[in-house]
């Protein structure tokens, strides 16, 4: 196990750092720190322009193979890019769903024609994507999706509802799990459809969150249409593709995320120093524990990444990643408001103009829900890491 970066990696880091420094200037300077958790929808126009600036310089989709418009960067280089991106407080990526979820899925499961149609606009930052998996009765139990797609002539006609769809209000396309066959077991008869968002058959109703922002939405499909060929993988065989997409979730973004966490922890420590809480013995212990948790997170991530780079399968230790960081981050939010004390309940500006630490507290509640809730993560650890019997499921039938 080698947890150090090579000289070549460090040279790459310098290149990324210098480019970000030179380009997060002028019209883009104001975007620093924007578009993060709980602020995902802000400054959308400026951030679209920023996406195009990244694309022009070849900094989108860097881990994709060169033949598909990427740089063919190694996993470690992707990690470095994300770390430097977070360090520079560059704006939250509007294109991340296309770049990290849909694109890799098309590369792995799509036809040549689908690759030619859908990959270049993601690389050029011309088309933004959203993920249409969850429904009111299909979240943790994703195979229960009911949104229906029927083949009519050379099109699919989609009817039903998705919910919690992040960035749906600004996305150009949605990859949606739809039921195309109601026979068989729950996981069968689901197809992975690509549906254009800007059409009369789709209504997007933003959901306001406790942060006051609306980064996700309900999406209603009422006779929405997409071309017959816009199915990834076999018709009725979308479950395997859907699971493939979930496997791409996070990975290389882990260390960048940890750097963002570190910046937040430093803000909490600064607040504690300036209001005297740093002298409180219990607060001191909690701050130290938070710092220790972050170090553990980093070492586990480096260990996992080193193993993957070496061609190894994901180890059992990798299964703790989501549960660990989500719980740590939620607890950091609690620590932040405890450090601020009664001050955390006051907003200086207009309603919902939250301070960074207030937003952290409210947003971090969602970390233990999306991308697999804490309870689901524990089930995964129980079954896959500890070999405990599978939890009783209510049958595979619908
Ligand atoms: C910020 C945010 C962004 C999101 N973005 C998207 C998006 O872009 N696209 C998308 O499709 N979805 C998105 N989601 C939805 C997310 O994937 C679901 O919220 C998540 O899968 C949980 O599903 P649910 O909300 O239906 O809760 P449920 O599955 O109904 O769960 C409710 C509670 O029951 C527990 N539970 C459920 N099953 C079990 C079990 N078997 N064992 C033990 N406990 C269980 C859960 O842990 C939870 O506490 C987003 C969610 C959030 C919070």
Commentary on this structure:
This protein is of the alpha+beta class and 398 residues long. The protein contains eleven helices and eight strands. The strands form two sheets. It has a four-stranded mixed sheet. Strands 2-3-7-6 form a four-stranded antiparallel sheet, with no helix packed on it. The mean pLDDT is 92. The site of flavin-adenine dinucleotide (FAD) has 18 residues, from β1, β3 and α11.
Q: Could you tell me which ligands this complex binds, including any ions or cofactors? A: flavin-adenine dinucleotide
What is the CA-atom radius of gyration, in angstroms? 22 Å
Helical residue percent band = 40-55%
Q: Kindly state the mean pLDDT as a whole number?
A: 92
Total E-strand runs: 8
What fraction of the residues are assigned to beta strands by DSSP? 5-15%
Number of helices: 11
State the major sheet: 4 strands, mixed
What overall geometry do the principal axes of the alpha carbons give? Answer: globular
**What is the rounded distance between the termini?**
46 Å
The topology string of helices and strands comes to HHHHHEEEEEEEEHHHHHH
Please state the structural category: alpha+beta
Low-confidence stretches: none
Strand order of the largest sheet: 1-4-5-8
